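#lab-general

N.A. 3:47 PM
ok so I finally got the sequence cleaned up, no stray characters, all 67 residues accounted for. can someone with queue access submit it? mine expired

B.Y. 3:52 PM
send it over

N.A. 3:53 PM
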Amino acid sequence: MERFDVHENCPRCTLPGMKTWDQLTEEEQFLALRLPASADFTPEERKKHRFCTRCWYEEIRLPQTDT
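B.Y. 4:20 PM
back already:
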């Protein structure tokens, strides 16, 4: 499993503070559920993503496949 760096900056707005699902407040989770990617992923899959609460960028890490 790939580990997220909690101090990593958002790739879109370049500010620090990317949060995992568990780090989001109840209100932030409510907003994250309404982001466009919510239609493409199950709730369980989305809990593996990280979110920028400044610009609402959603970081999606797809599983690595060995080729």
